[in-house]
Amino acid sequence: MSISLGPAATSIILLLGVVISVLGWLVARRQIEIEMARQTTIYASTLAHGVEAQIGSLYQALHRRAELWSDPQRSPDFWQPSVDLFLRENPSLLAIAHSDPSRPMLGSAEGMRALTQLMPSIVASAEGTEGDVVIGPVMFEGRPLFGLRVKTDLASPPARVFAAFDPSIALHELLDERAVGYGIRVEAGDRELFRRPASGAAIPAELAQNDSVSLGIGSAWTLSTWPIATTALSYYQQGPLLVLVSGLLASTLIAFAVHYGTLAWRRADALRDANLELARQIEETQRGQGDLRSLSGELEERVEQRTAELHETIVELETFNYSVSHDLRGPLGAVINFAAILREDYESRLDETARDILARIVRSATAAVSMMDALLAYSRSGRSELRKAPLDVARLVREVEQELVAISPQYACAVKIGDLPDVVADESMLRFIFSNLISNACKFVRPADSPSVEVGGRVSGGEAVFHVRDAGVGFDMRFAEKLFKVFERLHPSDEYPGHGVGLAIVARMVRRHGGRVWAQGAVGKGATFYFTIPVRDGSGDATKS
Amino acid sequence: MEDDANDVAVAMRALSRSSLGDRVKVLRDGVELLDYLDGSVDGIGPKLILLDLKMPRLDGRAALRELRKREITRHVPVVVVSSSSQQRDVHDCYELGANSFVVKQFNPYAPGEYLVSAVRYWLDMNEVAH
Q1: In this predicted model, what pLDDT tens digit does every residue of A453-484 receive, in sequence order?
Q2: Is A443:A453 a contact under the CB 8 Å cutoff?
Q3: Is A405 helix (H, G, I), strand (E, B) or coil?
Q4: Which residue, of A142, A525, B2, B39, has the greatest Cβ tally within 10 A?
Q5: Where in the sequence is the domain holding A423, given as residue range(s)?
Q6: Is the pTM value of this prediction over 0.80?
Q7: Around Cβ A411, how many Cβ atoms within 10 Å?
């Protein structure tokens, strides 16, 4: 007997895993982007506040000194050393002058040139104004400078102090060390006062965040920050990649486990079939050829030995399958739970796309869990104890029909019950077999028809042959073998829900009773499912399970 | 009692949303349970125990045996919450004195709500022997 690998289940699981991983990766990336923009905004606002405070305090200090320098009580000798000290402490102030001609302009040679050049503009803007004046930025030898006039009321007439201010020196002092991982630019109007990194590379507009720096002296600057390549890279890659890689890894593992699990079951089933055949041959040999008794004995011994080996293998495989399915159910469940929690708790912060992606993750993971549950059910059907008892099959089928109506009315329909021979079998298994076959028959109706299902049976050749017949969509006889294999489906699951496990369980339960199962049908002409349960023959010899 | 941090997080979220969260003590295995019971000298034990079967060190079965042995928890309802639905596990738990056996559920529309239902029944509707 040839063994088909049935790669459909493996591919579906692998595909599901990949889809979940990629979707997870996208969601994680999207979250990171949002988070990065938030961090950058916070950073821009922090820096803007820092600049405001720094420039503000410099301005206040200048104000306080101007009062001292203009105090008529103080000796004029006080002017020079005090201004020199103040200029040394505040390198962004290039030069300082006083309205009193006895106090000479002080500062670096270059600074004094700058202030001399700024002076006419300051005086011109101060026309008709009593208070403080700020002008700028004015380009001086390629540098944007500001000119200040500060008024004091101590002297009479009121004295005034003038200063040339280079903002880039103050900004370098304040921002150089903070531009780690971020680019920073400060502009006054359309003039750039400061920029880090200094290279002329374009600023990534989609990542940059702006904040305004209010200086309270009639001038406002704009501060922009943006994460530079290395920062952006480390943000983008770590978390989302971890999600992607672990997701892909997990789905590959699941796919492998399922692939080898189903492969092994089919081998085991094939071996069992071969053994049954062997057992039948032995029986014939014993009955017809007494001379060959010794050979039979030998054969029987071999069958027993192989059956024992087979049994051991099956138990091992079942245990493996059970624990794999069981252990994967938890992590998959966590995916469902946390995706659902993300969707619920962060609803207001997710956009349409993110919500859609989450819904897909939930759907896919839920589908995977329900496949796991179907696999577990299949596994259990091979492991549970076989408890045989004499059964009134007609009564059992009537009960099954009523149960279907009560529990899943969407899969119940009118069932015509014919003659049904009594058998000795496991009641819960026989109940499952009829329930599955009848609900299938009701389920696979042609869309326009109301389903009609007929159940019947007879005794023939030492076995009870039961059948469940419908007039539904039917199937292509070429695929009849596939019907009873795990995860094989002949009809699309969105039209006819299910996992393709029910019939595999039916086949397994029938085989455990020593019976056979098969189906006949044609596309559009309905289907009939048959199964047999061995019955006691005239000599009272009970059929082995 | 649950060793899986994910399951604990989901359960605590659901219970907290029903204002049951602040009455919950999370223990990660049987050994922690014994320490907790030994520590509660004032004789006020738990009102309800949710018990996972698969735990490190002292597992669910051993914990159940221990709970039924001690005076303070002899009559406290124990709900086994397991990802297993194997008859053997179910049978063993009832044999060892569990009051209920619930299989872990994953409902994408109400994560963990099934635990809230279970807790509500055992705390609000069930009458306990003292």
Answers
A1: 889 999 988 899 999 988 887 787 777 777 88
A2: no
A3: helix
A4: B2
A5: 386-540
A6: no
A7: 18
- B residues 102-121 near A, CB within 8 Å? 104, 106-112
In this complex, do B83 and A336 lie within 8 Å of one another by their Cβ atoms?
Answer: no
Report the share of chain A in percent with pLDDT over 90: 11
User: Which of A337, A338, A342, A369 best tests the B interface by mutation, with the highest count of B CBs <10 A?
Assistant: A337
Distance CA A506, CA A434 (A): 9
CA distance B39 to chain A (A): 32
Nearest-10 Cα torsion for B46, B49, B55, B60: 110
Residue A415 lies in a domain: yes
Domain for residue A279, yes or no? no
Kindly report which listed range (A237-241, A422-426, B86-90) carries the lowest average pLDDT score. A237-241
Instruction: Supply the mean pLDDT for chain B.
Output: 87
Distance from CA of B99 to the nearest CA of A (A): 23
Of A178, A200, A231, which residue is a domain's last? A231
Select from B47, B50, B65, B53 the least CA-distant residue to B123: B47
- Whether the predicted pLDDT of A543 surpasses 60: no
CATH of the domain at A79: 3.30.450
Read off the pLDDT of each residue in A233-239 and give the average, rounded to a whole number.
64
Task: Tell me which chain A residues have a C-beta less than 8 angstroms from the C-beta of B108.
Answer: 336, 339-340, 362, 366
